[in-house]
Amino acid sequence: MGTLKMPTLTPGERHEFASELSVAGRMWRALLNERLRDIDMSPARWSALYWLSRSPEGVSQTTLADLAGVEPATLVRTIDQLQEQELVERRPCLSDRRVNRLHLTPEAYPLVARMGEVADTLRRELMADFPDEEVRICINLMRRLRGRLEHANASPKRHARPRHVAAASSSEVDVDSSLRNAS
User: How far is CA 137 from each of CA 17, 23, 132, 134, 141, rounded to the nearest angstrom?
Assistant: First the structure.
């Protein structure tokens, strides 16, 4: 009795997989942006708040920029606005006086919780009739794909991904993993 051989994907199917993944990610982020705009959150603001909520010990502005996928200079205005709204505070780094660490203020936590509710509602709507086992298979596939992408990004011909970015992105996400790519 022979073993059953799975059919090989065609180049067109591999292209369709990559295309569908890319389009679905963009559409998901766009819809999340729209929903969060209803609670007065721009993509840059909610991305910064989200990543700060994942870093209770605080992070430098450079680290936050890495996590959010933007240049540090791009983040300055957003952090200034969040600080003016008393949602973020800058505290001196104890180990390096040249660096300020960014922290959420107590006033930010209800807003971060509301962001989580909005994102969870969207996830429930979009995935309402997906069988649990298919979702688990997809999660496993996406984790494996992300691992390969992280490995490819760390190859000698590319800049290595900072350790804190890889560590933060591999932990469970409370709001939505798409937040780390908002800008």
Answer: 15, 20, 9, 5, 6
